[in-house]
Write a structure and sequence with these properties.
By secondary structure, the protein is α/β, with parallel strands linked by helices. It has a domain at 78-259: NAD(P)-binding Rossmann-like Domain (Rossmann fold). It has eleven helices and 13 strands. The chain has helices at residues 11-22, 41-50, 66-71, 109-120, 138-143, 162-171, 190-201, 211-214, 218-223, 233-239, 248-258; strands at residues 3-7, 26-30, 35-36, 53-56, 79-85, 96-97, 124-128, 130-132, 149-150, 159-161, 178-181, 208-209, 229-230. Helix 3 links the parallel strand 4 (53-56) and strand 5 (79-85). Helix 1 packs across helix 6 (162-171). The two termini are 26 Å apart. This is SDR family NAD(P)-dependent oxidoreductase.
Length: 275
């Protein structure tokens, strides 16, 4: 029976774990949600002896990769996966980037270093743009009064529905190792996404603001510092993967039909790159 050990059971990895269990897999995971203390070396190494597959969704820490630093010599499984970020490509000034593009030139140098280490270890590295899904989308930001429209003409982003990440990782279980961009087919401005969410919820869009007027956090401001379109052709060709939600309109309409946007009284949702 296939057995997956997941390092870090966050938003995306928890949905992957559910999908694997639905297919009859045994899934163990570190972290409070997974039940295995990441710092308990004996328990982690014991779980690694049982695992046929390993996936890490743990972000960089102190400029390095915690999983490889502590357990790299123990991760000997033939299939290894890592949830990375398309932030490794840096600013492309709105141009398209694929897996052949240079990495390490943007603000996420730590992520780029970890991405390269996992690739060097023979892993399947999934580069993810802004992640959205149930409880974590523009619909929720509108419902919570946290939606912004920023006046930055020509600024575009790529994004991906969490369930399309899950289907991409599942498709890669029998595919060659390497880097794969998992993104939708339609890069678009954040303003367009917010406007679509407002339309679906019957609300007026928020006013158009400058970056200074929006008073964004440093993390959110950094989101607007880079401009690129992420190409997903390799994942389609090699994995036979196709996003079920090829654009933000399809994804938001499906969420509106099946989930209730989180209200302003709910706790804030994690950042869009948290796995």
């Amino acid at each position: 029976m296939p057995h997956m050990l997941i390092f870090g059971l966050g938003y995306t990895a928890s949905r992957l774990a559910a999908a694997l269990r639905g297919r009859g897999w045994v899934v163990e995971a570190t972290g409070s949600a997974g039940g295995i203390d990441f710092a308990d070396g004996a328990r982690v190494r014991d779980a690694l002896t049982r695992a046929s597959h390993v996936l890490s969704s743990v972000p960089p820490a102190s400029g390095s990769d915690p999983v490889l630093d502590l357990y790299g010599t123990d991760v000997t499984q033939q299939w290894r996966g890592y949830l990375s970020s398309t932030g490794v490509y840096g600013d492309a000034r709105g141009a398209w980037v694929d897996e052949s593009a240079a990495t390490g030139t943007g603000r996420r140098s730590d992520r780029s270093d970890c991405d390269a280490r996992w690739l060097g270890a023979g892993a399947h590295v999934f580069r993810l743009p802004g992640i959205y899904g149930p409880g974590r989308s523009a619909l929720d930001r509108v419902a919570q009064g946290r939606a912004n429209r920023i006046d930055l003409p020509g600024q575009v982003f790529s994004r991906v529905h969490v369930d399309d990440i899950v289907s991409g990782v599942l498709a890669a279980l029998d595919a060659p190792a390497g880097a794969y961009n998992l993104s939708d087919d339609l890069p678009a401005s954040q303003n367009a996404v917010i406007e679509e969410a407002c339309l679906l919820m019957g609300q007026e869009p928020p006013p158009l603001l400058t970056l200074e007027q929006a008073d964004l956090s440093p993390m959110a401001r950094g989101f607007y510092a880079e401009n690129r379109r992420v190409a997903n052709g390799r994942a389609k060709r090699v994995l036979g993967w196709k996003p079920a939600y090829p654009d933000y309109r399809t994804g938001l309409r499906a969420l509106k039909a099946t989930t209730m946007p989180t209200s302003a009284t709910a706790p804030p949702q994690p950042a869009s790159t948290d796995h």
